[in-house]
Amino acid sequence: MSVALQKRASLITQLKAQLAAAHDEAQSHLTHWNNGLKCAGILSAAMDEVVQTLFTHATTEEYPRANPLKSEHLCIVATGGYGRQTLAPKSDVDLLFLLPHQHTQWSESVVEWMLYALWDLNLKIGHATRTVKECVRLAKADQTIATAMMDARFLAGESSIFVEFEAAYYTQVMQQNAPTYVAAKMLEREERHTKQGTSRYLVEPNVKEGKGGLRDLQTLVWLVRFVHGLHTQNEVPLQADFTALEWRQFRRAENFLWFMRFHMHIIAGRAEERLSFELQREIAIAMGLKSARGLNGIERLMKHYFLIAKSVGHLTRVVCTSLELQNTVENRFALFTKKPKLTKPLLLVKGQLSHTNLRDLTQNPTHAFSLFAEADKTGLLIHPDAIRAIARSRMHLDEDEQCDAQANAQFLQLLTHTRDPENTLRAVNEAGLLASFLPPFRHVEALMQFNMYHHYTVDEHLIRTVGRVAAMREGTDMPARIFASLSNPRVLLVAALLHDIGKGYPEDHSIKGAEIAANLCPRMGLKPEETELVVWLIRYHLDMSTTAFRRDVNDAKTIGDFVELVQNIERLKLLYLLTIADIQAVGPTTWNSWRADLLATLYAQCELHLGNPEPLAAAPQRIANAQNQLQIALEGMEWPRGSIEAAIAWHNPNYWLKTSAHDQIQDAVLIRTTRENGVGLATRFEHDQTRGFTTWTICAADHPRLLSCIAGACAAQGFNIIGAYIDTTKEGFALDRIYITKPHDAGAIPYADFQQLEARLIAILSGKTNLKQHIQARNHYKNIAREQAFDVPLVVNISNTMSQNFTVIELEIRDQSGLLYDITRLLSTLNLNIACAFVATYGEKAVDAFYVTDLTGQKITSSARIATLKKRIVAELGNL
Q1: In the chain, N or C: fewer CB atoms in 10 Å?
Q2: CA–CA distance from 794 to each of 296, 449, 546, 784, 845 (Å)?
């Protein structure tokens, strides 16, 4: 090896050691929540030394110049995050190699040598080589480049080039383009939020690019600097656009977000910016956070994160709007524009709502409710100075004002009579007023539930639920028609706002929430009978979804028990609408046509019974009517009389009570095909476009493993089973109706896929395929680490009180591919016949219910047998 190469290798080894030491030092500060910026600064300073050392070596050892020409000068500049003296462990190092006038062979050689050296240090380098004129031209044309160059910081080389660059950038870019830059930056922020998710309360947020993240803070600094033409990042002039409290919030948020980002990069081993469930768990463990006050360590960590994100939202709202107003050209036609009529103390300031006495707004925070009501009425924004006054007012909100009758009447008006209560309440919450006015709300403010089912924090979920209820005032669908018939809609809106107010306590949140509502509703001005109804709705707000998704809604016992709970039509209406709104507000994909259909069926059955109790008891007449309708239909299809009589004789009484007339006709054709043509198996696929799922009906000779084979075929094919009904004809044919969907796709499944599914089932039944291998292969592509971030204890409940004719086995277990196959195979080995199955998935958790009998068709009543079944189920499924 030559001497030059030895020197280079020695230098690279030395610099690697320096960087490793800097990483160790930075990492040692991660035990302190307020040291995020210090960690980023340590890495940035270490990188400065590396770049400067390499530049010195390149220009003195590799490419020395005795008498350099004027063009043979070079300046190295840090840009982007590195320019701001902040580096995360796995971030790109952004460098600008700045030339005075033109590219030369010497400068190109130096740049090339440095880049190879930096790559040998395993660094990710973002780089550009430009002249000062090129920099100015590109900055004028592209606001992203203009932003990166605004953060430029001199590192090494000829400083006069950097001075020339700064002067040109200031006079030709910053001074001439402020209004354009502000508008472009605000549009960029909106597009970025849309891409990352429009809520800052998403439970897996992007710490860098997401709403409420680091990029929002950086945008504030860029806008302030650009508007005021600030050359440097000096904090003193930056603070001019912030109040003292806001600047403290800014620094606190920046420190914490960098603290989180540092942890994420270190744990992930890459530039990971999304705070995933796995990373949340790892960071909470690294911080030693324990459970406290009803929250586990992860939820405590994330509550702090979302409170920070909320403060970033407040800063963005007031500072960005203030800067926009400073750079808005007055409309010369404004005098001729119709303005809303405002009554004192409200007024317009530059087209935005404000208050004649901001001190009064601070001292009397409940006066803000009239400001929010006017904003909803007119669609106008609230002026940033008024928002600041409202934010300060939280400290003045005492118990007397919380209980003030007029203030509560104003708040109730906001909730029940505004045009857009969701956005109005969100604005009240963002200003910090909601938790101050309703103290129990503070416990759920920024509270995340650590599971894959809920997409938002609890307070955001509650506000979205109000929005879903309010949306029912419009439209013509079934929920809208029911909403229009309510005798007291405000009860529903209050229940929507408070239904999860008991989350985050050790006790059941429905019971705790009902207790809180019992104290809160009278204060809000509700009458005793209204309070009683709200308390009942909160106490039982999960019962309708539990019944619809985990019970047989065609079972008389199920309907009877639920009717006993709701007692009257008005309660049924309210609970039905609250259940829909609650599920819709969980996340964008939680509400689907299958759930809508199950809830609508339960509602219809209960409404029928509450209006006239006789239909449930008149089963023989319903059976006779169904058989008569089938006979007429088959006669119209020119079936022989003997075949019609046989088709009616095939089925047990329960079949006629739970099967639609359409399915009865199709089943008759399927069974006749199987019997008369001598085929071992016949199937039918029917996609319901409106309801978004496909029904797969299978007719075959019955045997205990049939359902598990069907479930296994679906799992191996990548289909989801969302429900199943199983019938056995009097002749021993199984008639299994399976409801399936394709993951992330509500459209019709191609017929070729069903042909493949049917062929796979036949191969499984004949023993020609290794089903377990197919399922394991599909599991290989799943994000197992994400699911394993959660603890999902196995829960097994076996009940004989939920149905008159069946024993019901309920399971709560971690969801995974092939789960239904594993469960049904186990139940078949336990000599159980499955009559119907209900499959519900809540994020990482599956909640399944199976209506079963023994092989003689009887319920399992022996306590010893039940205990043995439970022991076997726990032993077999506990290892999945």
Answers
A1: N
A2: 19, 19, 18, 18, 10
